[in-house]
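Entry:
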Amino acid sequence: MLLLAVLTGCASDDNGDVGRPLVMGASGTPESLVMAQIYAGALRGAGADVSPDPRIGDDGALLDAMSRSEVDLFPAFTGRLLAELAPASAATPDSGNAAGDGPAAADPNADARYVALNRSLPEGVSVGDATPVSVTPQLFVSNATAAAAGVSDLSGCARLPAGLLVVTTDEPDARTLHAFADAGCRLGPVARVGDARTVLERVAAGNALGLLTPLQIAGDTASGPAGQVEALSAPSGSQGAAAGPPAEVLVPVYRTAALTRDQVKAINRVAGEITTADLATLAGRVRAGSNPAGLAVDWLNEHGI
């Protein structure tokens, strides 16, 4: 709460760029595009003039644009942004147990990562309230395999058969694989497939592990083979070796001088309403052809923002 008060207090009373609409940034993924529009809509509700089109770029490019006052806010994930700004801090393990839709603050180590991120940001840049939207990598196993090995969380990962194929949709970060190895998981080679459903189908067959994030399997995609697998989360209250990958949650990054206090409050209201399932469903609809701006308006209206 003290940190939030400090961050909010840094916001200016008046928009520092009167005469220019605020510009949102996004990475270009469906998730980032719809979140940029949600934050844009929240700002409009607080009286801001916001450009309809986000600027597309990765975290580094958007921070550079922010330093030139060309971008005013963009959604980012804590671990990825921290890796861009301070790789040593990003590599520090924490409990990584941010699988659900509860507040990120429920995990004190995720809170520490949020503080580390804030300290690493360039001068004149702040982060708003962390959302519970999680992309923390998780290891999935079939219900049958977990039951046969007597495994319910990462503390029992060493009891799983050694060398199981790891199926995923993207090339995993080496730090993620090392974190699972440190937890005792004896992982086999990695195989990439086209989508999360295929990962879950391979895992449900019982001869592979899956590497996915909560965002990939939440919302409208949480059906079919998802009921035949389970995630090996970190044990409650765990620290250190059995913890797994660091927590990775969504935050708004904004140019401090660009937003008024009321506008900062408006974007922070989003954190109290958005869930991993919400964003997964919205992103799926963007992939199916829906307009991110229209989806954002509907979501904001539903949540009274």
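The longest strand covers residues 187-192.
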